[in-house]
Amino acid sequence: MQYILIADDNPDITDVLSEYAKREDLEPVIASDGLEAIQMFHKYNPVVVLLDVMMPKEDGYEVCRKIRAKSETPVILITARGEDFERVMGLDIGADDYIVKPFSPNEVMARVRAVLRRMTKKTGNVNNENVLTIGELVINLEEYTLFIGSRKMQLTKKEIETMWTLASNPNKVFTRDNLLDSLWGFDYYGDTRTVDSHIKRLRAKLDSVEHPGWGLKTIWGVGYKFDIEDSI
User: Fold this and answer.
1) Both 69 and 139 in a single domain?
2) What's the confidence (pLDDT) of residue 172?
3) Final residue of a domain: which of 122, 153, 171?
4) Strand 48-52 to strand 27-31: parallel, antiparallel, or no bridges (unpaired)?
């Protein structure tokens, strides 16, 4: 049996989402506050988490941080707030998607299906296809780590996925829409500002360590690419 954790202090929302989750053959587990959400997560090991941001005891951002510290289970944040900086913050701390209230339950389930499809593609047998090495850059998509030389970079899940996507295709230009589709899925209703903010934060982290021979390059008016020198 596959569980879905639905964490929200509004029983009307949890009741509706529970009914729709059952149609997806997912068994709902309900939490009404942040502390209970953490307890239910460890008890049931759900395949996906729907997480309200504004909850008692601990908010959704803090719950997401705690989940992401120990697990790569997909997390979808749900909130009444729709400001761009809050959406970016949620993604930066490791959330896989972000939905703003009011929402359609069908939309929520479409997002659930999308993150589960992406997770299924990433979780196969461990092999060398999950490790990418370019000079002193080593990205391990199985362990979700990125090293530059001996330095382990403190990156979010989404930042590592971004680096994997770009570095796997050196010198290929990805449009902002390409990156939205590849990293957040076609069901994501974000905009290109999300990509720009995300790349800006990622580049700042990477540039804290010297990495001659490669870098993230902005192609003005188009998008981004992993720029690599032939001599690396």
Assistant:
1) no
2) 87
3) 122
4) unpaired
> Are both 42 and 61 inside the same structural domain?
yes
**Full-model pTM:** 0.57
Same domain (yes/no): 53, 110: yes
CA dist., res. 136 & res. 132, Å (int): 11
Contact 222, 173 (CB under 8 A): yes
* DSSP, res 164: H
Q: Which residues span the domain enclosing 18?
A: 3-122
Residue listed under structure tokens 């209230």: 101
Residue 17 sits at the vertex; the CA angle it makes with 84 and 23, to the nearest 5 degrees, is 125
C-beta of residue 226 within 8 angstroms of C-beta of residue 166: yes
Are residues 209 and 189 both part of a single domain?
yes
Tell me the pLDDT tens digit for each residue of 116-164: 877 665 544 444 568 888 878 889 888 889 998 888 999 988 899 999 9
- CATH number of the domain where residue 218 is located: 1.10.10.10
Say yes or no: 224 and 162 in one domain: yes
Task: Please give the pLDDT value at position 185.
Answer: 65
**pLDDT value of position 205:** 93
Which strands, in side-by-side order, build the sheet including 48-52? Answer: 27-31, 3-7, 48-52, 75-79, 97-100
Do 115 and 70 form a contact (C-beta atoms < 8 A)?
no
* Tens-place pLDDT, residues 58-85: 888 889 989 888 888 889 988 876 555 6
